[in-house]
User: Fold ABC-type nitrate/sulfonate/bicarbonate transport system, periplasmic component from Desulfosporosinus meridiei.
Amino acid sequence: MKKQISRVGLVLMVLSIAFFVFGCGAPKKSENHSPISEAKVVKIGVLPIEDNLPFYVAEKDKLYTKEGVQVELVSFASAMERDAALQAGQIDGQVADLLAVALLKKIGADVKIASIGLGATPKEGRFAILSSPKSGITDLAGLKGGTLGISQNSIIDYVSDQMLLDKGVQLDSVKKVSIPKMPVRLDMLLSDQINAACLPDPLASLAQAKGAHLLIDDTYKNISQTVFLFRTESIKANSEGIKAVLRAYGTAGQALTNNPDQYRDLFLEKAQIPQELKDSYQTPTFSKLQLPTEEEVQSVMKWMVEKNLIPQAYNYQELVDPNLLPSS
Assistant:
């Protein structure tokens, strides 16, 4: 009888130990959200641009910890290096533009858009066409027959075409010059080696500060957006972790928008704002997380097909995952 009791006691002891070990090892829960495995680190590729600022704000404010997810921000010097890392599966997601999404799909990288990063409104993420200081060109009509520095087959090229067409300028009346490196394009503009250039902020603002003439910018119409995208394989493997990253990014974007002065030093550091603009350049604002519209996506796809960058347009469902956005 005692022997049987001893066996029962031994079994109960083993069960108690197992419960303690496995119970304590259960995934931690984020506040008000589903359990997320801490073993699955979400790796995000970042460039030194203002679009990525919410990632750093979330890190500073410990929003990833609050959401119960581990995030590693992996820095890259160029979009080419970042895209190669995404294709190789070395990172899970990044902020890029719609052209980059389609080109990644074309080369076999299965990716999905989870949200707009910067550019939900025309005021966010400005692009501008500016003329050189000594060109004497003060409006788009004066650009006829002149040279326009762009980066061929890029978002810069797309935005330039849309702005020119919207204002009635025939594309074949302007000679495009492909200058992929933006600092070189800026220098060539300021030294009058080209008549005009299309630049994003903060370089567009820097060009203005150095005497370039603003001909047009895209704040009159929402032409371009950056988007937050993830590898489909990463979404399948860790959808809850990716949703948590989105929640943190969205919360950080709103904190930045509502309290820009609080994050001013972080912004100047991470976005590499030129020294000449550190006192005057505005901290960007971020809209609440939302998906690009079908019209915005299809406009880019149509242009890419016309440029023979992709054989046929991807439809909206092929590019967008509507299930990752926070419910509120």
About this structure: The CA atoms of residues 118 and 253 lie 10 Å apart. The mean pLDDT is 89.
